[in-house]
Structure formats: structure tokens, C-alpha cells
Amino acid sequence: MQETRLDTARIRAARQVIDPIFLDTPLYRCEALEPVLGCAVSIKLETANPVRSFKARGTELVASLLAGRAAVCASAGNLGQALAWSGRGRGLDVTVVASRFAPAAKLDRIRALDARLELVDGDFDMARERAAAIARSDGIRLVEDSLDIETCEGAATIGLELVDAAPPFDAVLIALGGGALATGVGHVVKTWAPGVEVICVQPLGAPAMTHSWHQRRVVTTDSTDTIADGVAGRRPIPAVLDDLLVVADDAVLVREESIVAGMRMLLDHAGLVVEPSAALGIAAILEDRDRFADRHVATIVCGGNVDMDAYHRWVGARS
Amino acid sequence: MQETRLDTARIRAARQVIDPIFLDTPLYRCEALEPVLGCAVSIKLETANPVRSFKARGTELVASLLAGRAAVCASAGNLGQALAWSGRGRGLDVTVVASRFAPAAKLDRIRALDARLELVDGDFDMARERAAAIARSDGIRLVEDSLDIETCEGAATIGLELVDAAPPFDAVLIALGGGALATGVGHVVKTWAPGVEVICVQPLGAPAMTHSWHQRRVVTTDSTDTIADGVAGRRPIPAVLDDLLVVADDAVLVREESIVAGMRMLLDHAGLVVEPSAALGIAAILEDRDRFADRHVATIVCGGNVDMDAYHRWVGARS
Fold first, then answer.
1. Could you point out which of A140, A264, B164, B250 has its C-alpha 20 to 30 Å from the C-alpha of A88?
2. CB atoms < 10 A from the CB of A91, how many?
3. What's the pLDDT tens digit per position in A127-160?
4. Average per-residue pLDDT in chain A?
5. Confidence of residue B67 (pLDDT cuts 50, 70, 90)
6. Which residue of A has its CA nearest to B21?
7. Cβ contact, residue pair B305, A21, below 8 Å
8. CB-CB contact of B175 with B281 (8 Å)
9. Which of B271, B305, B306 has the CB atom closest to A47's CB atom?
10. In this complex, do A109 and B32 lie within 8 Å of one another by their Cβ atoms?
């Protein structure tokens, strides 16, 4: 494999720094999903922890380096919550910049964890600009999701837990947003289990990184239109794209209705409440059953922070 | 502590026999629940595994002893599913007897796991009689939940994971049905962390074991009336009551509306879909906030197998 910015020794060492509450998350076959999906499906569950997403694996590394100082990050919600949690425990003063359109559930948790929260009247990429401006004016550390290596290598510890699985998987489906999760997990999988297909999944309504991957150059979009708020970026980071080109075997786009169908399946057949980004893997199977037929696929359920009103609207009220 | 039927060395050894997929389950503070409950709450999550309940910890032990043979059990649904799963992997021929009123979700999973399923036109205690009759007539092993020591010592491995937690809890809330979970976890907690209060929780509509504990003798009831199907027994087993008298500090009864409120809170604030029995701990806090005020309470979310139609009816459709 070509080099990436990630380092396997650092990824192994990260396990010693990350609070164990975020490590060794459940990984299990979910046979109740399989008749509908036509393949063997294993769930890697990243929602059963204090911040209900995988992001704390990265923020634990960030906060351990910055203990006693101050940092600012832009966040779609999950990174901010995770950095607030890690910062609180390690004496890091945290400011989070988010879109005012981010789910209230995510914003409420950031506030509850004692972080300063600033809202911008725009999307995630506008929050990124504002966070950078705060870092410059206040002279504090800017934590950039997917660009900062700790966010990628923290996520990569999920990969360590996946490649240890027996029997091995045929493919791993990874939600693609900024790219920390995909490059992190992809790096480890391609290093230790190169035969496992690494497939990134993004919504059709937020396709910038997927288009970039296929065209092998950064492609931006003017807007996004998806319920998968956690992965809705418009401006891929060049260094992250470079890594993704090394570690991903494919990047696919899925429709909104498939994401909703995936969320509903995870609720009805697996008892899991997930945010839209976490259903991207199931959506990819639903859209291309032939590709996965009779294979064993692992999908990372990467987050469960969702506004319940919106959630019930999506998965459909029953009575 | 007085002796119970459980043995600490066997409980430690059990960890070597149980498939690791059922061990070291998530244990985490859930701060989003705490403003409403008025105390610190940690969740021990036993639903993120292939059978969505803690019962496989026990059936793994049973199946390891009976590999290649045949067994029958009565089940409210979760034990049967777990025994079917463990049996399939270890060449054990499994028959499950259940009430035809058990949740369809549980019965469907038992069938899907290749167990023989026989339904009785009565409740769990009638299923127990029928299972015993099958064992006698077929000359096969009867697996009796809570009476068979493997079911208690398997559940007790949850206790090992709880007493290792730092900081320690002030109290552990345990769903009480037949008593395997309560005696198992209670035995370990009282052995290694005797200062932690062990509180069993049962529905007012199925109070036989709780009444028995308070009166220190077996008290049966003629019927049960609760949505918490997993704990709805009428005839406590004397040997299990004896153990429970040693390890439990208290046994409390909760109302149906509190169970529903607990399920709703776990959904809205923790993103967890749980069956009614798994909400008993939260229900107990809701009914006696003063008792738990400012203490740190652990509650075992013991199962998530629920008919989704009933679930949505209970927690309330939203749109």
C-alpha cells in the first residue's frame, strides 16, 4: 500500500490514550437484517457510549495533547460533543462552532457538557471558516476534523477492532463525510486485511468527497441537500482526499429514501436508533443487493444523535 | 455473606466458556437521563449482541456442557432465543416451549435460529410444566431458568464487569423475574463490593418473587398482568428465593406507567430501544427519586426484544 498520513504504530498507541469506554465496541452479526439484505451483516456499534458516536476516539487524542489549554472546532454536532466531553475530563477549554441548523439534540448535548457553543447562520463549511477565525483571533488551537491526524488515527482504532474479527469480512461499509472515519478505518483494513473491500458511502445530496475520489481531484459543491447532517460537507480537504485515494476501493452515493429505509431497518430488525449518517452502509446494500449477495459485510453504526421528532417523522409514526 | 448456590471460581471460569461477543458489554454514564432522574445513571447494555439480551451468558455455559445432545427449556422468549443461538453453534438440539402470548418478535427469532418451538395456550408457568413433561417423555435435559446454576452464574459474569467499574456505584438496579439475573449479579456484587446496594425491581402486575422476598417464603400468584413479559412469573423457585434472600438488599414493585415512562426515557434520551423488563430500573428511580437523589446508580438494560407495533403503542406515536 502507498503511504498515507496515518501511522500504524501511533494508531496502536492511541488505544492507550483513549478512555476504554470508547474502545472495543460491540461487533456482532445481525441475522434479523439478513433476509431483507441478502448478505451476512455485522454491526460495529459506536453509539453505546457517553457521546453516542465514534468521534471521541479522536477527541481523546486531541484533548490528551492539549490538556489545560484551549481549542476551537467546527462541528456538525458529534465532533463538538466529543471534544466537549474529552475536554471536560482533561481540563481543555472548548469552543464549538456549529450551524444553527444542526440537530438540537447535538447542540443541547454540547452545551450540557460545558463547552462554549457559537452558532453560524450557515452550513458546516461556514462553521469551519468561523472556527478558523476564532482560532486566529484568540490564538488558540483549531481542531480540524479529518485534517488533524488525531481525528483520523482515533477513528482508525475502529479498524484495529475490525481486522481482529474472525471470520474476516468481505467488505466494510463506511460513512463518508470529511473523511476521518474512512481514511482511519481504511488505512488499518488495507494494512492488515488488504483483501477486505473498503467502500465509502455518501448521500447523493452531499457528494463532494465521492466526486473528488472518482475524479482524483478536489471537487466542491455549492450546497448540500440531505438529512445526513453528519456527513454534509461541500469542500473536501486535499490531504484527506489523497489518503482516501490510497485506502478506499470504492465510493458510492445513495438516495435519501435509502437512508431512511436503512434507519427503519436498523430500528425494526436490530433495535437501534441511529442518525442518518449511520444508516449509509445499510442504504448502500439496499441500493445494490447483487454486489453484496452472499458476502459478509461489516457496517459501522457511527452515531446515534438525532432529534427524536425528526427521527419519528423519517421512520414513520406507527400506532 | 452467607453461602449461595453460586460459586465465585466457577463464575470467573465462565468467562472462558462464554463467546466473547456476549462479554464486556458497554457500561457508561448516560448524563442525558440525569436531569430528569436526579441521580447519576450508568447503563450496562446487554442488548447489543446477536440475541439482544443477557441470556446467552447462561446458555453458553449450558450448551458447552450439553454439546451434541438435546435439551428443552421453557422461555418467555429470551432464554429460548439464547439457547437456540448457543445450541446451534455447539451442536445442541434445542426445543423451546413458550406461551403463545409471548411477543412475536421473540418467537420469530427462536424459529429463525432452527430451534423447535412449541407454544402452549397459557402463560410462562404453564410452559414450564410442558417443558418438564417433554424432558421426561423424551429423556432429554430440561434447562430451567434461574434454577439451573449455569443460568445464574452466566448472568453473574455481568456482576464481574460491574464491580470492576471505577468509581464504584452506590446501587445496582436489577430486573427481577425468575431470579437468575438478580442472584447472579447480586452474588458477585455482595462478594466483591458489599457496600453497593442491590435492588431488585419487579412489576406490580407480577409481584410473586418480590412478595416472596419480603415474606421470606415462597408466595405464588394466580395470574400476572404486566407488559414486562420477560419477568412475568407466578411461581418462584424455592432455591432461587433462598439465594435472593442472601444477596438482595431490597426488592421493589413498580407501576406499568412507570415502566412505559422508563422505556420512553431510554428511547428519547439514550437512543435505546428496550423491552419493558429492561426499563424496570429506570422505573424504580422514577417512583422514588428521593431514595436515589445524588447517588450513582447502575441499571442493567437486560433485553431489547420487543414487538415494534406494541413498542410504538407504548412509547407513543409521534409525527
1. B164
2. 11
3. 999 999 999 999 999 999 999 999 999 999 999 9
4. 96
5. confident
6. A28
7. no
8. yes
9. B271
10. yes
* Chain B interface disruption, residue of A19, A49, A315, most B CBs within 10 A: A49
Q: B308 at the A interface (CB within 8 A)? A: yes
Over the stretch B240-252, which tens digit does the pLDDT of each residue have?
Answer: 999 999 999 999 9
| 3-state DSSP assignment of residue A250 | strand
Domain segments of chain A as ranges? 8-53+149-315, 56-143
Domain B8-53+149-315: CATH architecture, name and number where available: 3-Layer(aba) Sandwich (3.40)
Residue A305 contacts B where some CB pair is shorter than 8 Å: yes
Q: What is the mean pLDDT of chain B?
A: 96
Taking alpha carbons only, the member of B47, B281, B30, B56 closest to residue B157 is: B56
Place of cell 441475522: A31
Query: How far, in Å, CA of B270 to CA of A296, rounded?
Result: 29
A84 C-beta neighbours (distance < 10 Å), count: 29
pLDDT digits (tens, 9 = 90+) for B180-227: 999 999 999 999 999 999 999 999 999 999 999 999 999 999 999 999
CB contact under 8 A, A308 and B24: no
Q: Tell me which long-range contacts B259-266 makes (C-beta under 8 A, separation of at least 24).
A: B259/B203, B259/B226, B259/B227, B259/B228, B259/B283, B260/B227, B260/B314, B260/B315, B261/B286, B262/B286, B263/B311, B263/B314, B263/B315, B264/B314, B264/B315, B264/B316, B265/B33, B265/B36, B265/B37, B266/B33, B266/B301
- For A56-143, CATH gives 3.40.50.1100
Option in B43, B271, B318 nearest A309 (CB): B318
Helix (H) or strand (E) holding A70: strand A70-75
